[in-house]
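Thread title: Can someone regenerate the structure for this chain?

I was given the following input by a collaborator and told the matching structure tokens would be attached. They weren't. Posting the sequence so someone can regenerate them.
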Amino acid sequence: MADIQGSYDDLFTAVPRALSALLDEGDAGASVAVFVDGEPVVDVWGGFADADRTIPWQRDTITNTWSVTKTMTALCALVLADRGELDLDAPVGRYWPGFARAGKEKVLVRHLLAHTAGLPDWDGPIEELYDWPSATARLAAQTPQWEPGSAAGYHSLTQGFLVGEVVRRITGRSLGEFFAQEVAGPLGADFHIGLAAEHDHRVAPTIPPPSQDEDYAASAPGGKATPSAATRVRVRDGNSVAWRRAEIPAANGFGNARSVGLVQSVMACAGAVRGTRLLSRAGCDLARQEQFSGEDRLLGTPMRWGLGYGLFDSIYGWGGWGGSLVVIEPEGRMTVAYVTHQMREPAADNRGLEMVMAAYDGLKGLRA
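Best answer:
Regenerated them for you:
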């Protein structure tokens, strides 16, 4: 069996075993963390940080978590709402006056978080993603594809700019700066939205699925084709220095399972972890307020959207392109995070779910 590093509670041995099995099946490298009551009961990693499998995955290896980043962006918005600085029922134009045009006058802040704003497609050049003023100006000029709030369509790239610009208008800080100073910093979490050069040596580049190369591009998980107007992101884009240096708060967060699990434990533990309170219990509960239930126009699958998180029965969270995932279980005060740089084709990827099920085995023993 593949060698696994780190530590874990004996009740949770199914988790490192599951990770070892994935590495044995051919995955390059990954990390898994399970937090209960804000404390790690699993913190393990294994494999390699490079495609040639010459550099071992280390304790502080980080990688692009893709859309898992959305949970971090949502948390920032919920923090501001909990402080009374952001009204989720306000029109976006209250905070961002230039947005209130081209049919977007009635777009509410909650629509941005719930993927119901009608602005799901990035239709500009990839390079414009790396320039915040240009990206947000393009979105401010767009016309919604549907009546805001009436339908949902996954805002895979646009959500981060939309929510991030509201955060910037309120705080005077970029989303990445706000997250670093108000969330990651107080918690001591090694997660970054936009990555400084000093961390480059720790990055495990994204590896495309077997039989694919770096031109492999994102597509709708539900099998429906992304509208032709949308610009597709390739693996090579995500591995570029320009991508790392930019702030793309829907898709370019860099971290590992430990940091993802630690941050989202705030949501599992009613707003406070290790003596640091970021939210009230009511502020946490906002995340689970259902905003939409039905078929997502972009994903092509039934979805329930809360405020910034996907809702799945009693749990919530979200995953990223290529397989990374975070799940929050508030009843058990548990968070499960799986972070990998080894992509698989979406239709054949159940790795994150396997980790969640393995963690539940341990939670049952812990609560028995």
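The longest strand covers residues 39-47.
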